[in-house]
Structure formats: structure tokens, C-alpha cells
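look at this record:
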Amino acid sequence: MALVKSGWLWRQSSILRRWKRNWFVLYLDGSLVYYHDETQRDMDGRIHIKYSCRDVRTGRECRDVQPPEGKSRDCLLTIVLRDGSKTTLCAESEDDAVAWKMAVLEAKSTPVRLHPPKTGAPSRHGLRAGTAHSPFCLAAPGVTHVIVREDPYRVSGDQMALGLLAGAATGAALGSFMWMPCWF
């Protein structure tokens, strides 16, 4: 997964409102994951920025929040979620808080989709894209692809119309009482 930003941030607990220092990692797919420490072994939590984030506030915009002892209000960062809850963070400096805000907004708005290549297009390894050996286009060194799967339950209008038509035809063929009034 493509890394956007990582570093130490203070996180305010949701129940007791105590400040705890966590190692945060923001990925391009919109996952903001926080760990106990830099080893990233014990995950403390995850926020799906692309789907959950409604707004990001910094500094004086973070009302009713007291920063950790020794920190300025300008270092505060609040992520407002769609369900109405908030995640309050505190960076080491005002510049770092602004950098985190920009990174979160970028991850929120960056589309991450990999389109399958045209079948038969040669890749840099001489393989044909779309074959069993190379299902996706291979990129140059240093390029990271992020793959997001489509929602399998999402139905377009065309698919819905064809489904209704197929249901009507099946009902008529089977002599269903539901579709009988349509024919008389």
C-alpha cells in the first residue's frame, strides 16, 4: 500500500479524554492506522478517511478541546467523521498539524483505481497484458498501484432495467399471476 505520511501524534481517548501518544500511518487508499509504537505490530485503531471523514480542522477551529500539557492549541487536529464522532489529535508543531491536515485531505480526495489494461498491450517485460501471466499492466520502478475493488452489489440503471425485463419475461413465460394483468 502506498504510504502518504507517518509519524507521532497525540490522540485523545474518546471516553476519559486522556492524551496518548501513537504512531500514525496514512495510506493512499485512505486508511489512517495508529499503532502503539513505530514497530507497527500492535494496531490500536483505524479510520477509513475516504468513507468516514466529513471534515478536518486544525488549530483554533478545534473548539472545546484542551491540548496536551505543554502543547499549543495551534497543534490540534480534529477529524470529524460522518457518524458525528470526532477524533482529536495533536501534532508536535503547528506546521506538522497543517501537514497532517493536507495529507488527510489529499488521501480523502485522491481516487485510487487501477483500470485493467487493453488486452494484447505489451508490458515492459514483453508479456501481454490480460494473459494468465500478467493480469495487470506492469509499471516502471517506483510507481505504486493501488487496487480498489468495485462494490459487487452496486447496480447501474441499465442493469436494473434488464433485470426487470428478464423478470417480466420469466413471469409471463411461467404464467405467474403477478404478470397476468399486464397481458389482458
